[in-house]
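Hi everyone, sorry if this is the wrong subforum. Our group has a chain we'd like a structural model of before ordering constructs, and none of us has done structure prediction before. Sequence below.
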Amino acid sequence: MAAAERTETGKRRLALRAARPGAPRALPPWPVLVVDDDPQVHDMTRVLLRDMSFEGRGFEPVDAHSAEEARAILAVRDDIPVMLLDVVMESDDAGLQLVRHIRRDRGDARLRIILRTGQPGQAPEREVMLDYDINDYRAKTELTAQRLFTAIVGAIRSWRHIDTIERLNAGLEERVAERTRDLEEARAFAAGLLDILPNPVWYRDRQGLLRLCNQAFRDFFRLGRDTPAEAAAAPLPEGGERALLAGETRRVEFEAEIADGTGQRRAAMVAKAALRSADGPALGVVGVLTDITERKALEDELRRLATTDPLTGAANRRRFMDVANRECERAERYRTPLSLAMLDIDHFKRVNDTWGHGIGDEVLRAVVRAVAGGLREIDLIGRLGGEEFAVLLPETELDGAMAVAERLRRAVAETDVPVPGGAYRVTVSLGVADWSGGGLDALLGRADRALYRAKDAGRDRVEAG
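Answer:
Right subforum, don't worry. Here is the predicted structure as C-alpha cells:
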C-alpha cells in the first residue's frame, strides 16, 4: 500500500514538474463554425482569420459545407461560440432550418449566429430575424477583414456573457437552496457576484425601494460607486411588480424606452422575477436590463432593406402593394377618396442604349427625388419594375390627383441629368385613376390604361382613367 502511495505520489510529482514549462501554455483558438456550400467562402474566411486574434487566442474555422454537416458538428461540440451561416445551400431555406434546429430542437440560445448572404439587397425580413433569433446580418460582399473581425469579436463577447450568466445562474440556484447564515454575508456575496454581470441588475423590496444594484447598473445610470442604492435616483422601468409580488406569475419580460445617465433614450429589454424567502412569500423584485438599442437600429435597417427599392429609395413592389391594398380596404369601408397614378419614364430605353445603365440608374434616382419632393407624408411612391412607378394618394379625389400628377410631371421636366457632352432633360407620362370599387387590380388597371393613352398622345402628359 505504501509503495502504491509512493508510486502515486511520484506520479503527482512528475505531473507537477511537467506543469511548470518555461513559457506559458498557448490558449486554444476560438472555434468559428463556417456553414456555406461555396468552397471559396471557406477559403476566404480562413485567409481573413489567419492572422487575427482576440485576447491572445487566434481563430479556428470549423468547416461545414451543408446544414446537415453543421448539425453533425454541433451534436458533438458545445464549445463553438459563433457561426457564420449561409441561407441557401442544399435547399432554399436550409440555413433557416438549421437555425430552427439549434434554437428550438437543441435549446441552444448561446450560439451567436451571423447570417451571411451573397445578395446584398436581399436582407432577411424583420420577422425572420426575430422568429429565428438570428443575432446579426452581413452581406458577404461587405465582410472585409476588419468587419469580419468586428462581427466575430462582438459575437464572442455576447456568447461569453450569456455563458457567464448561465453558469452564474446555475451556481446561484444551487446556493439559494442552502440557508444563508448571515444576511450581511449574503448581501456582500450577492453584490460581488452581481458586479461580474455585464448587464444592469437591481433589487427592489416590497415597498418599491431600491436596495441593491450592480456596477453595470451604476455605469448605465452614471451613479457614483459609493452612492448607496437606497439613495440612487434612477428611472427604473415599471411594470409587472404587482403580479410578481402577488405570486400571479414567476417572471415578466417587456421592452421599454429608458433614459440612461446622460439623458439619452435607450431601447431596453427588461426581465423581472420575484425574490422569495425560504418559506415562500416574495421579499421583492429582481430586475435585469439589456440594452437593445443597437439591435433595434438593426431591425429598423432590416425593415428598410426589406421594404425599399435599393436603387432609388422608393418603396419596393411588395411594400407598395401591401400599403395600397390596405388603403383600398379603408376607402371601401369608410367611403374615403383614394387615387393612384401610374408613372413611366419617357424614352428610358433610349437613355440606356445611348449612355449605358449607369446614366439610366441616375435617371431613375432623379425621377424619384423629384416626385418624392412633391408628395405629402401620407402619399407613397413605389417602384413596380424597370422604369415604371406608382404613386398612391390617399384622401384625394380625382381632380386633386390630376393636379398633383401635373405638378409632379412639371417637377420631373425641370430635372436635368448630366450626360457626356451636356445634360438630359427627363420627362414622364402619368395615368391617374380614383377608387370606384373592384379592388386594387381594377384601380391599377384603369391607371395603367390612362398611362398608355398619355404615351400614345405624345408623352410628357397626364391622362385620367
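For your construct planning: The chain has 15 helices and 18 strands. The chain has three domains: 30-164, 183-295, 308-464.
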